[in-house]
């Protein structure tokens, strides 16, 4: 089962990359609906969130019951300068990080999938649960990008 989770995780990244690459350079920063994120903002958000997920995976694997700190995605666009960042650099980060994480997770012993971290809001979460969350997060943003493309 763990190998299937890793394959789903990398498959969702591949799908995300494919959708991003289908967006024209001039459309990356366009906002399709007032108050919504552009495709570039979604890409930057994914890059930042994937760094958080990678840290969570590493901590769960190497520290006994590490603290998992949530992050406030609403402050990221302003504080992390989404409007000035390069979407292609963020996409490269996503692709590279997913490959490294998938490589690490494909080598994890079966018992380690039950290792836990302590999320400040959710309590104990297993490595399996965090990977499912990360994979589903990517998949949900694939859908968001598809909606943006449709609305442009």
Structural commentary:
The protein has helices spanning 2-21, 39-62, 76-79, 87-106, 127-151; strands at 67-68, 116-119, 123-126. It has 152 residues and is mostly helical. It has a single domain (2-151), classed as Up-down Bundle (Four Helix Bundle (Hemerythrin (Met), subunit A)), CATH 1.20.120. It has a three-stranded mixed beta sheet with strand order 1-2-3. Helix 1 packs antiparallel against helix 4 and helix 1 packs parallel to helix 5. It is globular. The mean pLDDT is 96.
Brief description of this entry?
This protein has about 150 residues and is mainly alpha-helical. It has five helices and three strands; from the N terminus they run ααβααββα.
What labels describe this entry?
single chain, 3-stranded mixed sheet, Four Helix Bundle (Hemerythrin (Met), subunit A), mainly alpha
The low-confidence runs, each spanning 5 or more residues with pLDDT under 50, are none
Structural class based on helices, strands and sheet pairing: mainly alpha
| Total beta strands | 3
Apparent shape: globular
Q: H/E series, N to C?
A: HHEHHEEH
Number of helices: 5
Query: How many discrete domains?
Result: 1
For the biggest β-sheet, the strand order reads 1-2-3
- Could you tell me the mean pLDDT? 96
> What is the CATH superfamily label?
dinb family like domain
């Amino acid at each position: 089962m763990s190998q299937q989770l890793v394959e789903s995780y990398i498959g969702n990244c591949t799908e995300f990359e494919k959708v991003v690459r289908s967006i024209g350079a001039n459309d990356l920063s366009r906002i399709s609906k007032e108050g919504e994120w552009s495709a570039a903002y979604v890409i930057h958000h994914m890059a930042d969130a994937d760094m958080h997920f990678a840290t969570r995976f590493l901590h769960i694997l190497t520290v006994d019951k590490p603290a998992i700190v949530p992050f406030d995605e609403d402050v990221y666009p302003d504080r992390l300068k989404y409007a000035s960042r390069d979407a292609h650099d963020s996409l490269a980060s996503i692709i590279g990080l997913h490959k490294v994480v998938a490589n690490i997770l494909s080598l994890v012993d079966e018992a380690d999938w039950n290792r836990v971290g302590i999320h400040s809001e959710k309590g104990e979460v297993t490595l399996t649960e965090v990977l499912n969350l990360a994979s589903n997060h990517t998949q949900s943003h694939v859908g968001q990008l598809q909606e943006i493309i449709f609305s442009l």
